[in-house]
Amino acid sequence: MLAVNLVKRLGPLMVEASFSCRSPGVTALSGPSGAGKTSVVNMLAGLLTPDEGSIVLEGRTLFDSRSGVNLPPERRRVGYVFQEGRLFPHLSVRGNLRYGLRLTPRPERWADFDQVVDLLGLGGLLERWPGRLSGGEKQRVAIGRALLASPRLLLMDEPLASLDARRKDEVLGYLARLAGALSIPTVYVSHQPEEILRLADCVALMENGLLGVQAGIEEFRQRLARTPPSLARGD
């Protein structure tokens, strides 16, 4: 279980987020651009320090403003997948994946190299270099690298945003497989309803920095049916 209660002022925007995420389970963090979604994910990762609040993951405190706990990113055991793959260009696909393995001491690893390669369909790409991969292939490798660090929490910040429709659908299929296989809480940032409906177990909705509603996926589906299409897409 991930329990989040955060407050952070970013210029004129006050970000306030309070939600929980089951383990296993995918919580979609949704809302229009500029709502504060990425800021929340960066606070979970330890890349941005909240002004106050707490983050507790599986009973372990990652951040608590009252007690002064603020674990650095490398001690949080969090996997982060960005909008772009951010692969190491000097390493092959195999090298990028094995870099993830090296981030976690052997006794604490739960991710299996062959299983992750199979789940993400990376077997035929292992000897390729990042410069020779498509956008969808790069994202699959980036997801695999994050998983092979054996994280206790997986963060995905609009990982399909830079892909065209065909590549997006391809990677979405792999993500759906992962969602059924992972045993860790996952926070998935998106304002695309089709991604959320396919992957998420529940949805936390943000607007103007405030997280106002955490809904089950069926309740989210009903909200979409009552919402004008442009608003549903976060336009």
Task: Give me the secondary-structure topology.
Blueprint: E1 2-10, E2 13-21, E3 25-30, H1 37-45, E4 52-57, E5 60-64, E6 69-70, H2 73-76, E7 78-81, H3 93-102, H4 113-119, H5 135-148, E8 153-157, H6 165-181, E9 185-189, H7 193-199, E10 202-207, E11 210-216, H8 217-225, H9 229-232
Parallel strand pairs: 3-9, 3-10, 7-8, 8-9
Antiparallel strand pairs: 1-2, 1-4, 4-5, 5-6, 10-11
Helix pairs in contact: 3-5, 5-6
Plain-language structure description:
With 235 residues, the protein is α/β, with parallel strands linked by helices. It has a domain at 2-86 and 154-232: Rossmann fold, CATH 3.40.50. The chain contains 9 helices and 11 strands. The strands form 2 sheets. A 6-stranded mixed β-sheet has the order 7-8-9-3-10-11, with helices on both faces. A 5-stranded antiparallel β-sheet has the order 2-1-4-5-6, with helices on one face. The model is unreliable at 230-235 (pLDDT under 50).
Relevant terms:
single chain, 235 residues, alpha/beta, Rossmann fold, six-stranded mixed β-sheet, five-stranded antiparallel β-sheet, 9 helices, 11 strands, disordered C terminus
